[in-house]
């Protein structure tokens, strides 16, 4: 069995609702906070297509159906692998708490017909062989890093804040990250990740942002590993927000019912 | 030959039905696999198997069905075609009903069957098959009632299915040592289907924020038959000589109660499982015992932990079996200790998988060691090279198969 952990694929860099206009004299932390404090809706359903491309141009594609719901002090997510065939109907469920309590995560393996609790640790592991780690895909807390505004810059016609973030954990896998955040919308547009030797490791680029039911969501992004010449694209489709997904969707019963 | 033709016809019907099912938007998936093994001992093939496993299913909001025919071919002339599962699901607001032939999996243990006793085992290849193939589907009505994160389940099995054991000509058959040629009376070996002979299993389970747990009970039959032995001795020469040995295999009722749990501590997952078996029969050398059998209560339990170090995933379990009110004439050990150990490591963006799985018999100092390497040539197409190595005391559960150590390869295509 591959050891796989649930993630919440909502991306850490998303638009903060209704915040436009000029932000005078903002600190790096305030800029990142505005980017983090996004509206994502009370629940969300989407199809995710993840395409891994190696240096030879060979592609491996994974498709996932995912559901998330904010229940106040707990957010629940469940996802089902649709393809490839060898992992079809594998499902994952995660309960994430607003408090410091660790996430609860489970995997259902259809071949074993068994739901197993899995550790929510090891966020530096790569998700399904992609260029995204679990930490990249999850919600990082504002206080996990110190944030410094480096400069302002025009990036591909967009006026951006450039913020450097350094983890307060010295053992963290990235020595630093540098994020380009669009000034008038606080959408994260590009992010560079640096390894322990402060060499550029990989780059996250946002390809598409869509407004769905009043919520701005990143629906196309690409993580390119500069050092390993490998890339992963993440494309969301059939996105629905605030459809009143019942809480009973996030149970073992649903994991085992498969798709 | 006729049997082969009939099975071939059934296969054609299934595939035709599959084509029709696809036209009805029914899902068809499965895998095709070749499995070839060679014994270290003499270079003979330990297994030459081709498999076609089909999953035919259709699911709606209120009803679903699933059919899982599986076809095995062995060597050049042997065909095994059967349904592992064939059932209907009915979905209601707070409960589900599943009716038909189905596999049921309980408990938190890996590769150890303590509370996971609803589906009997197919031991025709010992413990080597994948865990979904080692369990036999059973005819059952399964009722599950849901409340929040809790489930209360009842399973009724109208007819009994025993453990499937290796045939006498199999390399996995362990020939018993008899002091005289036995005569077998099979008249009591079957459990006749009836309401009185049906089996009942109940379970309460919950997934919570701190712990997952299950509590279960069963009124069931021992999947393994007990050997009732009647002997006749000739005393005419002054010393007793065994002249007649009659053996009557018979299944007996078991009452079982147990549970399991799983929780995360720091970055490891701690698991535990245990069950109390009431009314299990054991062989004895006590001359006063009826049919050389005694009825005892029995405990089976384990504790396990899953953890990672530097991207290597480890899992280990300690298992103990204890016979209560033990007497020294019994042939089984009073306490038997076993361990399992698993290490897994994925490379090349999870296309290359290295695994070492071991059963270690601590009491008998024997082991089954199972290294394997799997490479995903592309999505859904993989090749596996592995070995099953039996070592240690030849009276042990694993060491007895020391001549069956083998190397094997599997090629598998999922669709």
Structure description:
The complex is a heterodimer of chains A (259) and B (415). Chain A has 3 helices and 13 strands, in the order αββββββαβββββββα. Chain A has 259 residues and is mainly beta. Chain A has a single domain, classed as Lipoprotein localisation LolA/LolB/LppX (outer membrane lipoprotein receptor (LolB), chain A, Clam). Chain A has a 13-stranded antiparallel beta sheet with strand order 6-5-4-3-2-1-13-12-11-10-9-8-7. The longest helix of chain A is centred in the first third of the chain and has 9 residues. Chain B is mainly beta. Chain B has a domain of 82 residues. In chain B, 6% of the residues lie in helices and 58% in strands. In chain B, the strands form 2 sheets. Chain B has an 18-stranded antiparallel β-barrel. The two termini of chain B are 31 Å apart. Classes of the chains: A mainly beta (259), B mainly beta (415). Chains A and B meet through strand 6 and helix 3 of A and strand 14 and strand 16 of B.
Question: In summary, what is this structure?
Answer:
The complex is a heterodimer of chains A (259) and B (415). Chain A is mainly β and 259 residues long.
List the helices and strands and how they pair.
The complex is a heterodimer of chains A (259) and B (415).
Chain A: H1 28-36, E1 43-53, E2 59-70, E3 74-83, E4 91-97, E5 104-109, E6 114-118, H2 134-137, E7 145-155, E8 158-167, E9 176-182, E10 188-194, E11 200-212, E12 215-225, E13 230-241, H3 252-257
Antiparallel strand pairs in A: 1-2, 1-13, 2-3, 3-4, 4-5, 5-6, 7-8, 8-9, 9-10, 10-11, 11-12, 12-13
Chain B: H1 2-23, E1 27-39, E2 45-59, E3 63-74, E4 78-91, E5 95-102, E6 124-127, H2 131-134, E7 138-147, E8 150-157, E9 183-184, E10 199-207, E11 211-221, E12 226-234, E13 241-250, E14 253-265, E15 268-283, E16 293-309, E17 312-323, E18 335-347, E19 352-361, E20 366-378, E21 381-392, E22 406-414
Parallel strand pairs in B: 9-13
Antiparallel strand pairs in B: 1-2, 1-22, 2-3, 3-4, 4-5, 5-7, 7-8, 8-10, 10-11, 11-14, 12-13, 14-15, 15-16, 16-17, 17-18, 18-19, 19-20, 20-21, 21-22
């Amino acid at each position: 069995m591959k050891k796989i952990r649930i993630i919440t694929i909502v991306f850490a860099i998303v638009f903060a609702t209704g915040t436009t206009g000029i932000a005078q004299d903002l600190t790096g932390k305030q800029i990142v906070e505005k980017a983090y404090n996004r509206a994502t809706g009370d629940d969300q359903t989407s199809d995710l297509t993840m395409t891994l491309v190696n240096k030879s141009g060979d592609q491996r594609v994974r498709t996932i159906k995912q559901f998330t719901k904010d229940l106040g002090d707990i957010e629940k997510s469940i996802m089902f692998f649709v393809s490839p065939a060898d992992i079809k109907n594998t499902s994952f469920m995660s309960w994430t708490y607003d408090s410091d309590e660790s996430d609860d995560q489970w995997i259902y393996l259809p071949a074993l017909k068994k739901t197993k609790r899995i550790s929510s640790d090891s966020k530096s592991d790569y998700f399904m062989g992609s260029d995204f780690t679990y930490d990249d895909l999850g919600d990082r807390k504002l206080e996990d890093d110190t944030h410094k505004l480096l400069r302002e810059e025009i990036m591909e016609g967009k006026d951006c804040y450039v913020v450097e973030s350094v983890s307060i954990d010295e053992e963290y896998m990235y020595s630093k990250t540098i994020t380009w955040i669009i000034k008038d919308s606080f959408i994260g547009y590009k992010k560079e990740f640096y390894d322990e030797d402060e060499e550029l490791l990989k780059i996250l680029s946002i390809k598409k942002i869509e407004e769905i039911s009043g919520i701005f969501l990143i629906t196309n992004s690409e993580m390119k590993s500069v050092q390993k010449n490998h890339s992963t694209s993440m494309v969301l489709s059939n996105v629905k927000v605030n459809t009143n997904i019942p809480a009973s969707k996030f149970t073992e019963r649903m994991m085992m019912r498969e798709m | 030959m006729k049997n082969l033709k009939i099975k071939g016809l059934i296969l054609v019907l299934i595939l035709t039905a599959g084509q029709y099912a696809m036209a009805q938007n029914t899902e068809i998936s499965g895998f095709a696999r070749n499995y070839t093994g060679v014994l270290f001992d003499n270079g003979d093939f330990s297994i030459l198997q081709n498999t076609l496993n089909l999953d035919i299913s259709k699911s709606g909001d209120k009803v679903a069905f699933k059919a899982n025919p599986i076809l095995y071919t062995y060597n050049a002339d042997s065909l095994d075609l059967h349904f592992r599962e064939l059932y209907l699901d009915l979905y209601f607001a707070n409960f589900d009903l599943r009716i038909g032939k189905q596999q049921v999996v309980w408990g938190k243990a890996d590769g150890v069957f303590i509370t996971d006793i609803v589906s009997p085992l197919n031991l025709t290849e010992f413990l080597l098959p994948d865990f979904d193939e080692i369990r036999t589907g059973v005819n059952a009505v399964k009722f599950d009632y849901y409340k929040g994160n809790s489930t209360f389940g009842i399973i009724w099995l109208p007819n009994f299915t025993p453990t499937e054991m290796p045939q006498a000509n199999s390399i996995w058959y362990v020939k018993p040592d008899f002091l005289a040629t036995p005569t077998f009376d099979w008249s009591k070996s079957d459990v006749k289907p009836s309401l009185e002979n049906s089996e009942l299993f109940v379970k309460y389970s919950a997934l919570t924020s701190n712990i997952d747990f299950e509590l279960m009970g069963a009124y069931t039959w021992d999947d393994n038959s007990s050997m009732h032995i009647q002997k006749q001795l000739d005393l005419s020469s002054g010393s007793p000589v065994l002249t007649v040995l009659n053996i009557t295999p018979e299944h007996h009722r078991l009452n079982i109660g147990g549970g399991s749990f799983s929780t995360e501590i720091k970055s490891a997952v701690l698991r535990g499982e245990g069950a109390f078996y009431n009314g299990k029969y054991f062989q004895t050398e006590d001359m006063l015992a009826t049919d050389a059998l005694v009825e005892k209560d029995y405990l089976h339990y384990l504790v396990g932990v899953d953890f990672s170090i530097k991207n290597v995933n480890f899992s280990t379990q300690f298992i103990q079996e204890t016979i209560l009110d033990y007497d020294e004439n019994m042939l089984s050990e009073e306490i038997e200790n076993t361990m399992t150990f698993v290490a897994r490591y994925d490379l090349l963006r999870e296309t290359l998988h290295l695994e070492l799985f071991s059963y270690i018999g601590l009491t008998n100092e024997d082991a089954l060691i199972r290294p394997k390497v799997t490479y995903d040539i592309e999505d859904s197409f993989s090749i596996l090279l592995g070995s099953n190595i039996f070592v240690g005391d030849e009276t042990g559960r694993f060491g007895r198969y020391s001549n069956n150590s083998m190397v094997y390869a599997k090629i598998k295509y999922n669709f």
